[in-house]
Amino acid sequence: MDTEADLFYRQLPKVELHAHLNGSVSFETMETLIKRKPHLNIEHSMTAIRHGQRRTLDECFEVFKVIHQLVNSEEDILMVAKAVIREFAADGVKYLELRSTLREVAETGLTKQRYIETVLEAIRQCKQEEVDIDVRFLVAVDRRHGPEVAMETVKLAEDFLLSSNEVVVGLDLSGDPNVGHGKDLLSALEKAKNCGLKLALHLSEVPSQRDETELLLNLPPDRIGHGTFLHPEVGGSDSLVEKVCKQNIPIEMCLTSNVKGQTVPSYDKHHFQYWYKRGHPCVLCTDDKGVFCTDLSQEYQLAASTFGLTQEAVWMLSQQAIGYTFAPEPIKQRLEKKWAELKKEILQCCS
Ligand SMILES: CNc1ncnc2c1ncn2[C@@H]1O[C@H](COP(=O)(O)O)[C@@H](O)[C@H]1O
Ligand SMILES: [Zn+2]
C-alpha cells in the first residue's frame, strides 16, 4: 500500500525527458513478449536488473540485445510503445519525450521508416484513447553504428520533423559509450542541428570521454544525458563545467540507472548533488524504467530522500523541467497551467 509520501510523488505531475523505448518495457509487457517467442528461451532475469542487483555498463548493453530479439516487428513495437506510454501516464507523467533507435529486421520485414511510423502510430492511438499525457519522439543515433548510419538516421529524422505535426522534435545520441568517438558523428549532429532538430546527447557517461565531450559541447547540445564525469572531482575538467554552465545546458539525471550500471558508486555520491547545488538546470529521468525496475515517481522520491529535498523543492524540480522540454511553446504554456492548477491541491493534501 502507498504511504502518504509515496502518494505525493505519484500525484506530483511529472515531465520525463530521458526514456529509451526498449529499455522502458515493463515486467508485464515483457511476459507477453516472452510468451510470444518461446523458441528464444529468454527468461525474465535476462531483461531486468532487480532491486539490489548491479551490472557493469557492458552487461547492461547485453540486456538490450536480448530485448531487441523480443521486440523485432511492427506488431511488437506498437504494443510496447502503447504500453510504455500508458505506464508513464499512470505514474503521473504529463509530458513524455520517448527516444528509440531505428532498426530494420529482414526476418519480419521491419524497416527504419516503418519503425518510426509505428511509434508515431502508438502515440496517435494513445492520444485518441485520451491517455492523459503529451508524447513527443526523439530519433536515436546509436554511436556503435558509425557515421554513415548516423547521417542516414538524421535524414529520416529530418523528414519526420517536417511531416509529423511536431511529434518528432529531436535527435538523441546514445549507445555503448565505450565504442566509437563523437568526432566521427560530428557532421551528422551538425546537420541535425541545422535542420531544426533539438539535440539530446549522452555525454561523459564514462570517464574516458573527456575530449569527445569537449568537442560535442561546441555544437552545443540542447540537453545532456547523464554528464556523470563532467566535473574535475571525477576526472572531468573546469573547462567542461564552464562550457556547460555558460550555455546553461540542462542535464538529464538518472539516479537508479547510474547506480545499477555502476558508473556512480552510491546514491549519495550521485552528481545530481554537484549540479543542483550550483543551481544548474537538472531534470530527473528514468533512462530505462524496465531494465532498471524503476519509475519516475520513485526517482523523485529517491532524490528527495537522498539529498533532503522538501516537497516544495521537489515541486520546483518537476515544474522547471517543463522549460527544458523540446515541446512547442503553446504546449509548454499548457503544461505550466496544469502545474499551477494542481499545485495547491497536491502540496496541501500531502504535506
Ligand atoms: C544505461 N545507459 C545507456 N547509455 C547509453 N545508451 C543507452 C543507455 N540505456 C539505453 N541506451 C540505448 O537505448 C537502446 C535501447 O532502447 P531503443 O532500442 O533505442 O529503444 C540501447 O540499445 C542503447 O543504444
Ligand atoms: Zn540513456
TrEMBL record:
GO terms of biological process kind: adenosine catabolic process; inosine biosynthetic process; nucleotide metabolic process
Cited InterPro entries: A_deaminase_dom, Ado/ade_deaminase, Metal_Hydrolase
Keyword set, alphabetical order: Hydrolase, Metal-binding, Nucleotide metabolism, Zinc
Reaction equations catalysed: N(6)-methyl-AMP + H2O + H(+) = IMP + methylamine
UniProt cross-references to CDD domains, sorted A to Z: ADA_AMPD (cd00443)
Domain Adenosine deaminase: 13-338
Gene Ontology molecular function: adenosine deaminase activity; metal ion binding
SUPFAM superfamilies on file: Metallo-dependent hydrolases
Keyword Metal-binding: yes
Cofactor: Zn(2+)
Family note: Belongs to the metallo-dependent hydrolases superfamily. Adenosine and AMP deaminases family.
Quaternary structure note: Monomer.
Identification of the protein by name: Adenosine deaminase
Taxonomic placement: Eukaryota, Metazoa, Chordata, Craniata, Vertebrata
